[in-house]
Specification:
By secondary structure, this protein is α+β, with helices and mostly antiparallel strands. It has two domains: 157 residues, Jelly Rolls, CATH 2.60.120.10; 99 residues, Homeodomain-like (Arc Repressor Mutant, subunit A, Orthogonal Bundle). The protein is built from ten helices and ten strands. It has a six-stranded antiparallel sheet with strand order 1-2-9-4-7-10. A four-stranded antiparallel sheet has the order 3-8-5-6, with no helix packed on it. A hairpin with a 2-residue loop joins strand 5 and strand 6. Helix 5 packs across helix 7 and helix 8 packs across helix 9. The two termini are 14 Å apart. 32% of the residues are buried. The model has no long low-confidence stretch (mean pLDDT 88). GO terms for molecular function: DNA-binding transcription factor activity; sequence-specific DNA binding. InterPro entries: HTH_AraC (IPR018060). Pfam families: HTH_18. This is AraC family transcriptional regulator.
Length: 269
């Protein structure tokens, strides 16, 4: 299964964070054994995701599984929990019996809540206990259901966020730039975004490399590809590459291959 080409969300149950955390955490999710069996049966399967620069935590509540980040491959053991930045193509190889709790942060969310800069995690798979307390992770695994696990994690994140209290100016600028771009202006260049935010292109570049771990150009190229591909999959007949700042369909096709590693003809009928 490939993100956007396939509806990978159908395999999970989801919870949105409370309003205080909604700017920094996109969602909590957990594997649904019933839905997984409905769509995959008893067969092993893989989920492929392309770059988003969103720090993502995987808490393993079930069996070992394999994780590929770019060209590197990892065997994740039953008791191992991990964090990845998702700055590269990620593929998770699953069994129908897998049980994984996911926490997906927005860019800069780790730093706003925990004071941890995400740029250091590029192209890595790090054990989650380097970021979250081992006692917290153990307690999450002892709880009987998804709702209670989310409540515990959310309470911890809120307590850490309130300790930090003040969000630094550069995180705010990055988040405003992302919101502006995703609101429907994918033709904006970095310089135009900087002007809209009353800052300089050099400053915006520095803020992005500090907060997200990549340049504005590289990050927004990924966002544009996601937005355009989602629109294409939804309705090919109404899709126009020009609305997303592409020169033509060939330019769009090349971007799809660059970010997903797949050709449209292989994935969309």
């Amino acid at each position: 299964m490939t993100e956007i080409f396939d509806n990978i969300r159908k395999l999970y149950r989801f919870a949105t964070p409370c309003p205080e955390l909604a700017t920094y955490i996109e969602f909590f999710s957990e594997s649904s054994a019933e839905e997984t069996y409905r769509y995959t049966g008893d067969s092993p399967f893989a989920i492929r995701m392309f770059p988003s620069w969103t720090p993502t935590c995987y808490i393993n509540l079930g069996q070992p599984y394999q994780l590929s980040v770019g060209s590197a491959h990892y065997q994740i053991q039953q008791r191992t929990d991990v964090l990845i930045l998702r700055n590269n193509i990620v593929e998770r190889h699953n069994l129908p019996t897998d049980h994984i709790l996911t926490i997906k942060f927005f860019p800069g969310g780790l730093e706003a809540i925990l004071g941890i800069n995400q740029a250091q995690f590029s192209d890595q798979v790090v054990t989650l206990d380097t970021v979250l307390p081992t006692a917290l992770l153990n307690r999450v695994k002892q709880l009987p259901d998804f709702r209670e696990r989310v409540e515990l994690l959310q309470a911890f994140f809120l307590s850490q966020y309130k300790k930090k209290n003040a969000i630094t100016h550069y995180i705010n600028v990055v988040q405003k730039a992302i919101d502006l771009y995703e609101a429907g202006t994918p033709e904006f260049t970095s310089s135009q975004l900087a002007n809209e935010l009353f800052t300089t292109n050099k400053t915006l570049y520095r803020y992005f490399t500090n907060v997200v771990g990549t340049t504005p150009k590289q990050y927004f190229s990924s966002v544009r590809a996601r937005l355009a591909l989602s629109a294409y999959v939804t309705d090919k007949k109404l899709f126009s590459p020009y609305e997303y700042g592409y020169y033509d369909m060939s330019h769009f096709y090349k971007d799809v291959i660059r970010f997903t590693g797949k050709k449209l003809i292989e994935s969309v009928s």
